Amino acid sequence: MRTAITLLAFLAACHRPPHPGTPPLHVLLVTVEQMRADRLSCYQHRSPTSAFDSTLEERIEGRAFGLDELARGGVLFDHAFAPSSALGPALAALHTGRSPIETGVLDEDGALEPRFTTLAAELARRGFATRACVTGTGDRIARVAGAGFESFAAESDDARTLEAARTFFDRDSGSGRSTFLWIHLAGPALPWDAPLAPEDGRRFVDPSYAGAADGSSVFLARLARAELALDEADRAALGARYDERLRATLERL
Q1: CA-CA distance, 156 to 69, in Å (whole number)?
Q2: 87-116, pLDDT tens digit by residue?
Q3: Is the pLDDT of residue 12 over 70?
Q4: DSSP E strands, 12-150
Q5: DSSP for 20-46, written as a single string
Q6: Residue 170 belongs to what H/E stretch?
Q7: Which of 29, 92, 140, 188 could bond to 182 as cystine, CB 3.0-4.6 Å?
Q8: What is the pLDDT of residues 129-173, one digit of tens each?
């Protein structure tokens, strides 16, 4: 599967000197497959895909965790690129800070050699509890990014992945030990066969659109057989459906 991976949030304070009474420091890494920066409202996309309401109190206390809010109060990169369009090489590079040429993970069949130090391994060495909650084939992801994690949970969908992450937070975040949690989500990946629940996300598709561009397996198969010719309305509908799926992913997160 050819895909892109986007770093959503990286909150760290690993090098801050300890002070008496200072709470444990935690690191949260969130990655989302097939999430395009140019479809995020924090990058000026016209649909509010990553904008969520927050109160003044939440913003002052640092409890506003919508992506636009994090971007506004943190660091938003003008130019950030994955080193590969394939998931495996991109994850190996992200977790080691080395290019695919260096890691030797060049495609989805690659595996990271034990000689490379990962972010999880380095944080574990510093005393962090390390946990990975990922959506997808666990063995495939663990081969390139699983080193250093004390526990590694692979789930079939994003809802289960986020529930596993919540369980980890509820159990371990108050234990007094610093933690590193990596959440990896499948995001708005095609095909879009399962309908969005009424409460998921916002609806961006023009309600008057009656074409076939719904992102389903049937639609993709017809497109692959060149049975369909997409016009401007079809392309706009596909883009809007992508925005809906993206919004729903970020809303769950």
Answers
A1: 29
A2: 999 999 999 999 999 999 999 899 999 999
A3: no
A4: 27-33, 129-135
A5: TTPPPP-EEEEEEET--GGGSGGGT-S
A6: helix 158-172
A7: 29
A8: 999 999 988 788 999 999 999 999 999 999 999 999 999 877 765
pTM of the model: 0.85
Peptide bond into 191 cis (omega under 30): yes
Mean pLDDT of the region 14-40: 76
Rounded CA gap, 135 and 154, in Å?
A: 6
- What Cα–Cα distance (Å) separates residue 45 from each residue in 8, 52, 75, 250? 16, 14, 18, 15
* Contact of 58 with 112, CB cutoff 8 Å: no
Q: Give 14's pLDDT tier (boundaries 50, 70, 90).
A: very low
> What letter does residue 76 receive in the DSSP assignment?
-
DSSP annotation of 151 reads E
* Residue tagged 């234990």 (tokens): 175
Residue type, 189: A
pLDDT of res. 199: 76
- Write the DSSP assignment of 198-247 as a string of letters: TTSS---S-TT--SS-S--HHHHHHHHTT-----HHHHHHHHHHHHHHHH
Listed in order, strand segments (DSSP E) in 42-185 are 129-135, 151-155, 179-185
Count of H-run helices and E-run strands, the chain = 9, 5
